[in-house]
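F.,

This is the one I mentioned.
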């Protein structure tokens, strides 16, 4: 039976999966959601022996029902190949009683590779299915990782162009170098004078500008998104939670049917929402622990029922989580309101107008699977340091937030269920902050980024990823900057329209 999609704000209904992927964002500014979350039609025991690619097919076929088996398997096989440095694609590592789901083995050493390796293939297949003649322009805001992963995925893909906006001074130096040295004739990178929320808001405004869309149409372009607002990004993220449970079962770490918890370092809410979808599909997941850094808007929301972005924006050493407007939370709000698009639309309008909204008691009850926690920079560093000292295992600063929040949760609740922590980036991506946590060397502040990388390699023995080695001497191709209110004009200039 074909699964259709609709906008969380009610403006679009009966949209096919391929068209939802192509559009990215609904015309009314809402996000596409399936009319129901399908149940897995295979047992966890049967999944236990399957490869990542086979697991991906079992999950994605249920959501992308207008893709043929050949089309979908072709997209999966092109995505999850030698670009990843391990055949497992997403290995599980046990350290200090925690299970770290390593999502950073792709070509840009961050979890965004898991979905952005397949999105270009889904999108070009979808374009053919829908007889699209226009060039597809991928427009994306990034807090650091989405940008590079999207650029790498779409570089030189026929029929596409990609423009990435990132906050100047709001990403790590490694993240910035990965973006500004990107090759590809169809790629563009722009630093905005503002924070990630400014970049994300600017991108959404461009999507909602009908006159600008018409102007692009006349020049043979149409916009789409590689952010996690695109359902083609969200669905592939469900796969690794299904795979993680099956791996725990295969490795006899859990009994069949035993519940596990999942802890996710959270910014835009897509990664933890994917875990919630996995639970709704039948994966035995207990608590979804939403880990925030000092920008704890989500912790406050799950604690009080009020979402309030009216607060200081704090730059931290886990920059991909420095977000005050968590776009994907809208999908959970919509579900918690019983898929009532009117209720959701009203709350999103309140957010736009007043910067805050409060959900009803009933909606809060419908979100009881979630709990929030947050970690300060000192708590984050302490966990990274202790884990390395006790086990020799090194994690990055985002994963550190999740580990710190999980340990606090365990202490407060006494919940001893086995827990998978989404390990979202290679420590080398945030090498300075990681080194500051695990080393007492006072000379670090005088070292450049790559000297720090080499020092981390010496201390940890971890291989330096190819993604880091290749930017040591890569030429900077992009130095374009713009004010946050000049993003539309910048897109027009890049596209010459």
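My design for it:
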């Amino acid at each position: 039976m074909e699964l259709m999609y609709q906008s969380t704000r009610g403006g679009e209904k009966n949209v096919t999966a391929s068209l939802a992927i192509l559009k990215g964002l609904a015309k009314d500014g809402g996000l596409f959601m399936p009319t129901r979350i399908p149940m897995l039609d295979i047992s966890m025991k049967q999944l236990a022996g399957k490869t990542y690619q086979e697991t991906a097919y079992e999950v994605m076929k249920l959501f992308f029902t207008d893709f043929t088996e050949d089309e979908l398997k072709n997209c999966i096989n092109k995505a999850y190949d030698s670009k990843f440095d391990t055949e497992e694609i997403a290995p599980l590592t046990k350290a200090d009683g925690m299970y770290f789901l390593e999502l950073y083995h792709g070509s840009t050493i961050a979890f965004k590779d898991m979905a952005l390796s397949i999105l270009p293939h889904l999108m070009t297949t979808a374009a053919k299915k829908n007889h699209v003649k226009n060039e597809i322009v991928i427009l994306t805001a990034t807090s650091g990782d989405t940008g590079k992963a999207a650029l790498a995925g779409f570089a030189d893909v026929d029929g596409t162009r990609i423009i990435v906006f990132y906050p100047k001074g709001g990403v790590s130096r490694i993240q910035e170098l990965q973006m500004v040295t990107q090759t590809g004739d169809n790629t563009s990178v722009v630093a905005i004078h503002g924070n990630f929320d400014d970049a994300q808001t600017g991108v959404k405004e461009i999507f909602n500008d009908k006159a600008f869309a018409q102007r692009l149409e006349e020049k043979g372009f149409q916009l789409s998104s590689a952010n996690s607002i695109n359902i083609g990004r969200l669905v592939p993220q469900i796969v690794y939670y299904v795979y993680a449970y099956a791996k725990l079962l295969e490795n006899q770490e859990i009994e069949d049917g035993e519940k596990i918890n999942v802890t996710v370092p959270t910014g835009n809410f897509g990664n933890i929402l994917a875990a919630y979808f996995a639970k709704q599909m039948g994966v035995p997941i207990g608590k979804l622990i939403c880990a925030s850094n000092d920008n704890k808007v989500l912790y406050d929301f799950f604690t009080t029922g009020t979402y309030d972005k009216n607060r200081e924006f704090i730059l931290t050493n886990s920059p991909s989580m420095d977000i005050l407007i968590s776009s994907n939370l809208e999908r959970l709000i919509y579900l918690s309101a019983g898929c009532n698009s009117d209720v959701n639309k009203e709350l999103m309008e309140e957010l736009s107008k007043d910067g805050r909204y409060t959900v009803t008691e009933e909606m809060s009850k419908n979100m009881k699977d979630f709990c929030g926690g947050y970690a300060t920079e000192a708590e984050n560093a302490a966990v990274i340091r202790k884990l390395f000292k006790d086990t020799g295992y090194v994690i990055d600063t985002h994963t550190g937030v999740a580990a710190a929040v999980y340990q606090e949760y365990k202490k407060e609740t006494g919940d001893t269920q086995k827990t998978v922590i989404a390990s979202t980036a290679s420590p080398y991506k945030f090498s300075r902050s990681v080194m500051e946590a695990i080393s007492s060397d006072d000379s670090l502040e005088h070292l450049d980024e790559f000297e720090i990388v080499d020092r981390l390699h010496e201390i940890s023995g971890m291989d330096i990823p190819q993604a880091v080695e290749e930017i040591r001497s890569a030429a900077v191709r992009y130095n374009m900057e713009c004010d946050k209110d000049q993003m539309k004009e910048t897109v027009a200039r890049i596209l010459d329209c």
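The longest helix spans residues 231-250.

Talk soon.
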